[in-house]
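for the writeup, i need someone to sanity check this before i put it in the appendix. the sequnce is what the collaborator sent (i think, or maybe the updated version? ugh). structure was predicted straight from it, no edits. if anything looks off just tell me and ill rerun, i have time this weekend
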Amino acid sequence: MIDVTPRYLAGRDYSNQVFDRLVARWGWGCADATELSQTFAWSRDHRFRLGAGQLDPGAWWRIAAAKEPLGPPDWQAGFSQETPPEIILAVAEELARTGTATDWTGESHPALRTPTDRRTLIRTLADAGWRSTYRAGVLDLEAPDHLARVQIRLDPRGDRQDLMGRPHLYVEVGPRDTGGYPPYWQAMVTTTAPTVVVDALAQALTDPTALQRDRDWMDEELLAHLGHTEEGAFADADPQIPEPSEAAHPYTETDLREAAAEVCEEALEWTEDLDHTPDGYIEDRVIPSSRTGTPTTWGQLPPEQKALAYLLVEDMVIAAAASTPALFDLDPGANLDPRTASKKPTPPLTTALNELIFTIDDLKDAAAHAAAMQINWVDPSGLADTLHDRPIAAAADGTGPTWGSLPDAQREQALREVDRLLTRAAERTTELFAADFRPAPLALVSPVYLAGPGHDRTAAVKPLTDRGWTTEEHGDMTVYTSPCRRLRAQSTTDDNGTTWTASFHHLLSREEVWRASADRRTPSEIVVALHAALAANPGELVRPSRPAGYGLAPAIAAGWHDTSTREHLMLDAPAGELASVYRCTAPAGQMFAAESRAWQISAGKLGPGEVEGWSIEMSENIPAPLLEAVTAAMTDPAPVARLGRDLTPEHLVDLVVRPLVPQTPPGPSARALAARTRIVLSPPAATTSPSTNAASPPARPRQQIR
């Protein structure tokens, strides 16, 4: 026998300890399904079930939990066969340990509560030295030895039955590059798994206590990773056990700060759900950049700019919630959250982003003020209810007290300290917005083909209307017709965006000669370029099409990769190949049945389940000026203005994003606003704290965070 640590590398021990312990210690039932070679155990209330020998090798062990006895699973967890039984038992015993009290409804059972709070899990792994990276809604944490990884999908939405497809939590143990072989073992947890389950899994992964295993039964490659080249080579020193704490109080200053950080985070996250924020906080606040002329408040902005400003401030406050530990001198990395925007849609806006009356610095000032007001609005009398059932951080293993279980005097003292910390945090909210956001609320991004459709749906029609094209409305569809009546453009608009079609028809027969169609995700700059070419010289658009490849000069000059074959013409963008121009050029007899000769121009991530890219389809005989206009717009290196909230998360890693710099001096819209208001406002009075410009706390009562 050898001692193995870290314990996630121990592998299975070929014992029956999981079922034996659940039956002997917790009174679970157990039975074998001999014909299926499976074993099952269930809790006394029949809400939790554990099975071994399941048909799916990735979830050979499976735990299911239901709010009703024998009901459909509310959440599931799966473990492959080689998973150390101690890991599985850590989760299963948490279900038994937290469900000892009679609970006929299942509503109060900690293992049946949702949504999941990931903070303790992330903090547990981070404290054990696991390093984290974040990309496209997924947080990856890797053990110091690079032999274990935990992947967390931070989007709370998902199918509670989807264990194998897109699990909320995925654990993989083994080296990254296995040449196609499966990992040593893996575990998966569905979206709705509660906090106690994911926390128990994190504790089991980081438990420093060694496990005993028979060396002869262990994987040789795994032994090599552990440093075992021959039997007995493993150090047999006992793990160091820290001395018990001699603290006189059941909580520390760090516990108080962490409790205050949790309350603060919730206060900022709930900005989205409160009708009076942020407009009620900043409506009468002067926009800092306007102080050089006629001071203007946020409430005096034109309606569409005001609606956008309020939404962007709300976005920034919500995004700052994840960084609230910094206000309490805690590690911000222990409280990660991917939310950077509210779920509200972007309001209509016809003003160019670089002509807005406010700047990013103005938004930061407003967001810091709104965050301070939101923190100050937390009702001290409600803190007792808010923290009542929450464990003190130092006793988060479940063996210690909650804040509500403290003696009255200690509890009251702790609540006063938490309120004091919240008051001080409100004075430091400018620190949350000192660094630039990525993506910036007002941004310049490139390349244009990954920038998304943009905020202005009216820009695309200007090249047509400026040339005298007529307009006809037909419900959600608008038809634009050229003066010669042979060229036509058509738009169809719904809540998801606008699709565009351009076409040319014979004057007498009305037969369509060619067509170009752009979907709703196509960047507006590319549609504008297409329409500009459509309206510039109609005579060029009725001539026969040039040979294949004519019109691609801009892409070739920009260094796009030519991967054409005899049967296919293909050009790919050089950066990540996330944009392409394609057309089948094979003789008719060599084409696939479903293949056409139409031009297919696309960019972004497209495919099953991925709809964040866009595509334009053009007829085989599309006039060369139109094809050239589209490829020139796609290869234009100039960055384009975008709202950061509208950028596609899947494309952020491939975009160059920097804050938008407003036009200087202020444009005519700002001067017109100043002339129209004719109100001179005094700047707000300076605050007593030198580190913030937040307003004084509002009068009590404040809101109660539950």
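Confidence is low (pLDDT under 50) at residues 229-248, 334-338, 665-706. The chain has 16 helices and 27 strands.
thx in advance!!
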